[in-house]
Amino acid sequence: MISKNHAAGARRVFLYMYGTARRGASGSELRFYSNCRAYLDLGFSVDVVQVLTEADSHPTEPELPVRSTVVRAPAMPASITGRLMYRCGYPGSAAAAYYFEKHAAVLRAAQIRVTQYPDSLHQFENHCESPIPFLRGIRSIWGCHDLLHTVVEGSQRIDQETESRGSTRAERREVRFARKLERRIAKSSRLVLCVSQGDCDEVRSWGCTAAEALPLSIPHVPERVDRPEWRRDGKLKLLHVGAIAQVPTYRSLEFLLEEVFPRLKPAVLAQISLEVIGNIVEGERCRRILSLVSRYPNVSLLGRIPDLEPHYASADVQVVASTDATGLRTRIVESFALGLPVLCSSIASRGVAGARPGENLLLANTPEEWAAVLESLVRDPGPLPILARGARESYDSVHGAPVVAASLAAALERHLGVLPPGRTGTNR
């Protein structure tokens, strides 16, 4: 006989995350929302376990019909064993706890829930995945938004450039450890749900056959995205979204303000405005971007905005000029959903399912190419409504919530033998 907890567990999924699932968020929290929504659409009972340190801000309730629990990760003294293991490059649990301050709290939270619901699914979202190799007999899923080593390497490159130096021994040690740990996590996971096809291909190259690319859906998708006019105030209004200190955002703004704008003719630049939305914190990266922004009266730094939709609605083009990127530029998918044309680099668009340059987005890589495209749009905004329609069509067919739910269902059946509650047959 199957126990009540076993039966309930087969229909239950726990999602461990450091943030929460919010509609108005961007980046990883938008991914959390998409994943939670897909499980709910499939009929699963969803429990969000929000893991916070004492220094973190107050928890925010998920904006979805899920159960939510907050787990506090207490401050703990560094383990000598963990430090030695880390320095030796051995990705054991003590080393993971030394490197990730929330490791022990996530590990304990999962152990408690596995005991109570042995057949439940456990999905560890970005930066909560380190306990996976150290949990036995668990249906573990890694919700991979970024590959750790790419984030570490990108951050180190910026630090090295701003400080005019090469890599240090400590930095090289960190990269080696990150690579070893994430490979162990991938091979220990029953399923890895990657945010982009590029990340999925890399994880599979490590020998992990249980990796799948899962599309990203967006909340608040309007039924129609028709815009009565473009360049309503006579200027081409550009939008740039993302926390400024993050590697892709910093690189994008650096490129635009230092390489692209100086190449525009003054008459063209006068017909362009740029809104920059994203968290601004203390640090060398933000100080540098602030210095670059000060050169241009047509650039507005708005900081963090709780509701992005009015800014999407009033913009003509979202610019994503990343020269160094990780995971997926979720803002591109968000633009697709809202019918906002995107001008981006090849690196920024890498891994975006359904991206078709010239049909649903514009692609430029060199400063000269960027300047030429912007000048062309200032002169003739005619391509913008065509791109907007193509973007929305791509979103509906590749990223819409029903597509994400179907993709998740197929992955769960293929790699864990789990059918969504109430379903029979195959999703293969």
Tags for this entry?
428 residues, alpha/beta, Rossmann fold, 2 domains, 7-stranded parallel beta sheet, 6-stranded parallel beta sheet, 17 helices, 44% helix, 15% strand
Descriptive notes:
This protein is of the alpha/beta class and 428 residues long. The chain has 2 domains: 4-217 and 400-416, 3-Layer(aba) Sandwich (Rossmann fold), CATH 3.40.50; 236-399, Glycogen Phosphorylase B (Rossmann fold, 3-Layer(aba) Sandwich). 44% of the residues lie in helices and 15% in strands. It has helices at 4-9, 28-41, 80-88, 93-99, 103-116, 148-162, 169-188, 197-205, 247-260, 266-269, 284-293, 309-314, 330-338, 346-349, 367-379, 383-399, 401-416; strands spanning 12-17, 45-53, 67-73, 121-124, 139-144, 191-194, 211-213, 236-241, 272-277, 299-303, 317-320, 342-344, 362-363. The strands form 2 sheets. Strands 3-2-1-4-5-6-7 form a 7-stranded parallel beta sheet, with helices on both faces. α2 links the parallel β1 and β2 (45-53). α6 (148-162) packs antiparallel against α7 and α9 (247-260) runs parallel beside α11. It is globular and about 65 Å long.
